[in-house]
Amino acid sequence: MAVPPNDVADLGLAQAGVRRVDWAERAMPALRRIRERFVAEQPLTGVRVAACMHVTAETANAMRTLRAGGAEIALAASNPLSTQDDTAAALAAEYGVAVYARAGMDQASYDRNLAAVLEGSPHILLDDGCDLVNIVHRERPELLSGLTGGCEQTTTGVIRLRQMEREGALKLPMVAVNDTATKRMFDNRYGTGQSTIDGIMRATNAMLAGRTVVVAGFGYCGRGLAERARGMGARVIVTEVDPVKALDAVMQGYTVLPMEQAAAEGDVLVTVTGNRDVIRAEHIAQLKDGAVLANSGHFDVEIDLPALESLAVEVREVRPQSDEYVLADGRRIVLLAEGRLLNLGAAEGHPAAVMDMSFSVQALTVAWLVGQHSSLAPGVLDVPEEIDNEVARLELEALGVGIDHLTPEQEEYLHSWRE
């Protein structure tokens, strides 16, 4: 097989990448079943896919599934710190994916790689933060006529898409994969919760039991993180702007405070909101000596990094992915993973078993888009319920779990107002 165009660190790492991808595949049974189906049905023959995603072993298995269905794929990294160079090499050398990703690449390289995946005039966009959609609409509008649609798998990206839709700017049907029940429950809640704790532990080797962890944001990701921090023995404080979510946190037994108060109490503070400037200069002024700051939101804007840098008189790396900012008054503030997405910058992201569901939904949704595109209008679309249910069914089947089924009488009772 000819190696497609690529920008990877070292193609010689391909075999190590194959081993990593194969290990992840063991925990992705639903995606394996979908790949087998795609091999037989070839629903994506001739379809060109441009993807901006974290280049990890789990993503590689998603790309293999789309390739098995006949798709041509160009993949760029969605985060400079999350790329696994051996996985990128395997994608190019062994799995036929045109991949543009190097660990630690600078902003210019990141932008260049995003442009590269669009050069093939794609039919489908797979986005992770709405970057590709943004570029197409603002810089490459000539590509719109050839695009069928796409998928967005992050909360941040869906927020952007809905704003584009409200303003009449969105010219494509984009499916909010992030908003499915399986994605929110497993990827956002269980995946983010576990992988964020993993990132904190790898970067700091700190003990969480008996310490105070501040979780900024109590959406699905924040809930998962709060649950797991409490499970580690931490005292958890939640900050929120949404009164309903704040009330939910209170009813679950968490302390809820404004960030102005929480900052002074936190030993570890993690933002997971999808918004910017959640921790600002006035909050940094309240932090304890040795406080740890981290972000598990998609973009590195949740912590006001310019403010932190302006307050520091010295910055030094104290551990891999841990930078210590020494303030004028002597306090030391530790920033993890450069304020980027912690669970992928300092750890390996979600477990493969979690991504199995998210990528299974995405694979089936891509096939659905290709089959239904002529009837779809521009806008933000939900994943069809039958796809979400199918993925859940495949996962239960893989786990050997059986469930009940409604009897005809029960079906009639549920659908009849006369009963």
UniProtKB/TrEMBL annotation:
HAMAP family: AdoHcyase
NCBIfam families xref list: ahcY, PRK05476.2-3
Location (main, coarse): cytoplasm
Function, in words: May play a key role in the regulation of the intracellular concentration of adenosylhomocysteine.
Named cofactor requirement(s): NAD(+)
Gene Ontology terms: biological process: L-homocysteine biosynthetic process; one-carbon metabolic process; S-adenosylmethionine cycle
Cofactor note: Binds 1 NAD(+) per subunit.
SMART domains assigned: AdoHcyase, AdoHcyase_NAD
The organism of origin for this protein: Lipingzhangella halophila
Positions with a binding annotation for NAD(+): 154-156, 188, 217-224, 240, 275, 296-298, 343, 350
EC number: 3.13.2.1
Example of a GO MF term: adenosylhomocysteinase activity
Protein name per UniProt: Adenosylhomocysteinase
Pathways per UniProt: Amino-acid biosynthesis; L-homocysteine biosynthesis; L-homocysteine from S-adenosyl-L-homocysteine: step 1/1
